[in-house]
Amino acid sequence: MAAIPDRARPARQSARSFEMVLPGQLPEVGEVLARAQSENFTVAARVLPYRIRQHLMAVYGFARLVDYAGDEACGPREGLLELLEADLGRAYDGTPRLPLLRAFAPTVRACGIPRAVPSRLIEANRRDQHVRRYSTFEELLDYCYYAANPIGELVLYIFGRAEPELIRLSDRICSALQILEHCQDIGEDFGQGRIYMPLNDLRDFGCAESELAAPTASAELRGAVWFEVDRALELLRSGQPLIGRLSGLARMAVAGYVAGGVATARAFEPAGYDPLAVEVRPDRRRILSEWVRLSMSSSAGLEHDRVRDAYRYCERITRTQARNFFYGIRLLPPVKRGALSAVYSFARRVDDIGDGSLSSEQKLLRLQQARQDIDDVGPDAKDPVLVALADTARRLPVPLEVFHELIDGCEADVRGTRYDTFEQLTHYCRCVAGSVGRLSLGVFGHEVTGPAAQRADSLGVALQLTNILRDLLEDRRGGRVYLPTEDLRRFGVSLELDSRGMFTDPPDALNELVRFQARRIEGWYSEGLRLLPLLDHRSRACCAAMAGIYHELLRHIADDPAAVTRGRITLPGRQKMIVAARSLAGMKS
């Protein structure tokens, strides 16, 4: 599908109608050039000769003036762009009227720059007046041909190296820099009615356009941003041979632009790929180190490993969202730590679908898509979590098809399923948690069969039952009851809430119900913890830490059953660390 215009393009107006610029309609020269300090890269490094710096700043000034006319100016922007087009023509005749065009005129003459090259920048801003969306990445690259690639070509003209093959390499670098800027500015661009992320990518990640106006990025949008940044890194990598084809000052300047792009891409990781909540800015020290590396060594390739980056994406999710599990996961060696983070990240995604604010119908559609994702998982996936899972399944005996059971359990949550008997509840727990136990067993490097699989399943059930008991009040307020109906009847409990959202049942009856559940859960821990002797030392420590934290939580509940009727309880961080340390030392929790 073609790019989507928000209105019909107006007929081009005569430049003669815009011979005068109204006061304040265009910025002062100093205001435009000062923006160079906030760019992702150094526009004109001081180590370059004055003549070269003047040419580079003239190019920058022209490009920024055009952007201002197309993005920020008051009044008829189409008319201002026509005026700039006319004054650009006068620059080639030696008679420009605007100050920044007067500064640009000596550069175009001295460097032999064809007028068609800077004209493309004006055409890009004309497009911005009526094209608000790009359906495909190919359409976006076509826009970059006008909006970004001319800058690299102008730089090559300044250094006398505007050769066809070098221009093709430069185009990749400039398109990458433009894509990274779009990722940084998705909120700002959306506020102006524009979306530069390809619509088919947003759709593939399940992102609605309205999510671009949120204060923080959803998990789906963060995944989409990761994918676009990954694309930009690949473009930078494929354009990097340009540096090796240049020498001297040209090489130094272009290496600086690439270094700025690499540093910008890397800045998305600590920001959690959330440019809505965090201003993503490149670290100046990182820019400098990349610049030195790229300038000094022609064989120094851009380090771009999308599988590694995918694992790091998953580990960040796990570190920030799995506060209990991460105490154990961090005890694993790197390969297994990354693999278990990938498993957790996908499980968390499924869980978030079930707990989210979408309608039940939409949730079931998302869960169906999750099933398809697991069936089609591969190294070329767009989604970083799926990239990491594909590599995990390649390295370790992890049965990814087990995720279907997790999705079964989440679908039961969406449908509001209640459980009459404890056997029905344990089946649900095997789906949503026993499945993760068996997947974890594969991550530990153990075949997911026989007694080990049964014990991993039992340990998962124990953890899930502990969760259910811990979240008794929170779940009830959300309309969910997991405890079996037969148990509620046995203890004369209804789990009804009063106007304050508190249980109306007699406290003694509630306490007895909680104690009974805690005793029953202990039996599942007894069976599940028999898995530990079957694991290697590091995997055993990880498993013992994760289970130990929940087991300790269960003991707190058994000691004070009324606590779960007042709200959700947690262990202090210090106590979690003690459990993890004991697990690593081989001590019992």
UniProtKB/TrEMBL annotation:
Q: Name one GO biological process term.
A: carotenoid biosynthetic process
One matching Pfam family: SQS_PSY
InterPro entries linked: Isoprenoid_synthase_dom_sf, SQ_synth_HpnD-like, Squ/phyt_synthse, Squalene/phytoene_synthase_CS, Trans_IPPS_bact-type, Trans_IPPS_HH
- Superkingdom of the source species: Bacteria
What pathway, per the record?
Carotenoid biosynthesis; phytoene biosynthesis
Q: Name the source organism.
A: Actinopolyspora righensis
User: What keywords would UniProt list here?
Assistant: Transferase
Protein's name in the database: Farnesyl-diphosphate farnesyltransferase
Give one GO term, molecular function aspect: squalene synthase [NAD(P)H] activity
